[in-house]
Every structure is written in C-alpha cells, then in structure tokens.
Amino acid sequence: MVRDPAPSEESPSLQTVLEALDDADCRAILRETTEPMTANELSDTCDIPTSTLYRKLELLSEAALVRERVAINPGGGRTTRYVRDFDDVTISMDDGEFDVAVERPARGADERLADIWSKMGDEL
C-alpha cells in the first residue's frame, strides 16, 4: 500500500522530489495520472510490471506528487485510484541553498471528505 503523501502545507524534501522526477517510470506515471487511474490501468498504460509500479507509486507518494483516492464499492471492498497531486513543482536557490515548492490543485469539499473517509478506512 502506498503511504499518504506529505500534508499539503508541507513540501517534500528536494532530494525526494528529484529522485522521483529523475525516474523514467515515475515520469510516465505522472503523465498518465491527470485523471485517477487504478494500479492495473497504470501498469497497462505505462507498460510497467505491477510489482515495479507499486515501488514507483511509493516513490511518487513520498515526494507528494501523487495521492491515493479510495472508493468503497457498494458490493464490498475498495478500489484505489492514483492521481497526480500537483500543478507545479519549483526548484529555487536562495543564499546558496536549494529549495523545492510543490503547488497543489484546489480541492473541493467532496475531495476533502473522500480523503477523510479514506483515512478512516485505513484505521479500521
């Protein structure tokens, strides 16, 4: 299972973001996740083996570049979809130190509620 990304008000470390963006498979996943996709859909679309895909999703999650959307199925079980979770990534240098800032898309009330529901489901 992919871990929750860093909270929206926190930026991930520069090293973590650079590692994710330096990976060709991660970049392919980011290109495809403008709309939520399941791991199987991403595996097929990006031509990445499922076991590798989950490692790449973990890397992207640690960099707070993708997030999980979990939906409860009416017949039971859950479906997890992954979606790109940034509008812009900026790397800057100030006083000789590099910094990274991740600009996030605005989330509607329904998405915030879905995030809360997903976290509650993880606790059960």
Corresponding CATH architecture:
Orthogonal Bundle
Q: How many discrete domains?
A: 1
CATH-defined topology: Arc Repressor Mutant, subunit A
Chain-averaged pLDDT: 85
- CATH 4th-level superfamily: Winged helix-like DNA-binding domain superfamily/Winged helix DNA-binding domain
The biggest sheet, with number of strands, parallel, antiparallel or mixed sense and barrel status, is:
3 strands, antiparallel
Residue stretches low in confidence (pLDDT < 50, at least 5 long) are: 1-9
Numbering strands along the chain, what is their spatial order in the largest sheet? 1-3-2
Helix/strand order, N-terminal first: HHEHHEEEEH
Helix proportion: 40-55%
The CATH class:
Mainly Alpha
What is the number of beta strands? Answer: 5
**Roughly how many Å apart are the termini?**
15 Å
- The chain-level structural class is alpha+beta
Estimate the strand proportion. Answer: 15-25%
What is the quaternary state of this protein? single chain
* Rg: 15 Å
**Count of alpha/pi helices:** 5
Pfam families: HTH_20
Protein name: ArsR family transcriptional regulator
Organism: Candidatus Halobonum tyrrellensis G22
Task: Please explain how this structure is put together.
InterPro entries: ArsR-like_HTH, WH-like_DNA-bd_sf, WH_DNA-bd_sf. This is ArsR family transcriptional regulator. Pfam families: HTH_20. The chain is α+β, with helices and mostly antiparallel strands and 124 residues long. The chain has a single domain (14-123), classed as Winged helix-like DNA-binding domain superfamily/Winged helix DNA-binding domain (Arc Repressor Mutant, subunit A). The chain contains 5 helices and 5 strands. The chain has a 3-stranded antiparallel beta sheet. The chain has a two-stranded antiparallel ribbon with strand order 4-5.
